[in-house]
Inverse folding.
């Protein structure tokens, strides 16, 4: 009995901490998502299918791209912070979830960890490797690494990173078992986010096959970041309500 009581207290304490931390993380996630989105929108693609500013950069992407540093890379710095906030938010969701739902939310948290590792490394390589290599005249392999290659490693890693992020949303949804309007809307937003990312991937693959270039990346980032804005606002409200409920009962 004492062991069960201790476990119950520990679970309640973890849920309280998750709500408190999650409230602040959710607010920061919304703020960083909006600011990163704004910076990304004003950084137009200079190669590939959506390039509108002639002349567009072409293989081997060595000429003129040095002039685009650092302005074409500004959005990656807040994007790194945003991705880490997303992981922190998924951790808070996991510990906020009822114990019966934690096996599912745990898998969502692991997906978030994989997505975060891939995306953070991808962006850090761009801001820390590509430019200094060009300045040093070390151009071997740059064409495969640079963000201007529409089918290079940068885009592929974004594809898998944001795909995993999108899939993780569905595994966070079961954490919210309440029948209130906020919980219902949040579950719908998270599940629709996953569905939209998978539909986007399927549509792009069917239409373009292996020549999808960065088309899916654009869809995935737009969907994932939109979900983070909406879900982040809803989570902030849910976590705040949970904190107030605990404060009143203590």
């Amino acid at each position: 009995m004492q062991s069960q009581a201790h476990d119950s207290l520990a679970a309640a304490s973890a849920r309280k901490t998750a709500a408190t931390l999650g409230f602040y993380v959710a607010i920061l996630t919304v703020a960083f998502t909006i600011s990163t989105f704004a910076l990304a929108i004003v950084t137009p693609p200079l190669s590939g299918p959506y390039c509108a500013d002639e002349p567009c950069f072409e293989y081997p992407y060595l000429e003129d791209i040095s002039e685009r540093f650092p302005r074409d890379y500004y959005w990656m710095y807040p994007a790194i912070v945003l991705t880490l906030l997303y992981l922190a938010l998924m951790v808070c969701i996991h510990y906020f979830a009822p114990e019966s739902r934690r096996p599912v939310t745990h898998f969502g948290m692991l997906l978030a960890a994989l997505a975060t590792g891939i995306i953070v490394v991808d962006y850090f390589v761009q801001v820390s490797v590509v430019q200094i290599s060009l300045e040093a005249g070390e151009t071997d392999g740059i064409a495969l690494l640079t963000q201007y290659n529409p089918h290079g490693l940068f885009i592929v890693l974004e594809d898998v990173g944001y795909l995993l992020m999108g899939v993780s949303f569905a595994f966070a949804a079961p954490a919210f078992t309440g029948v209130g309007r906020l919980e219902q809307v949040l579950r719908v937003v998270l599940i629709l986010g996953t569905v939209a990312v998978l539909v986007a991937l399927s549509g792009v693959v069917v239409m373009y096959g292996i020549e999808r270039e960065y088309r899916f990346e654009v869809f995935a980032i737009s969907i994932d970041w939109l979900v983070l804005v909406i879900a982040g606002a809803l989570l902030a409200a849910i976590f705040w309500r949970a904190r107030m409920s605990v404060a009143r009962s203590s």
User: Anything to note?
Assistant: Residues 35 and 78 are 8 Å apart (CA to CA). Helices lie at 2-41, 76-96, 102-135, 142-145, 153-172, 181-208, 215-249.
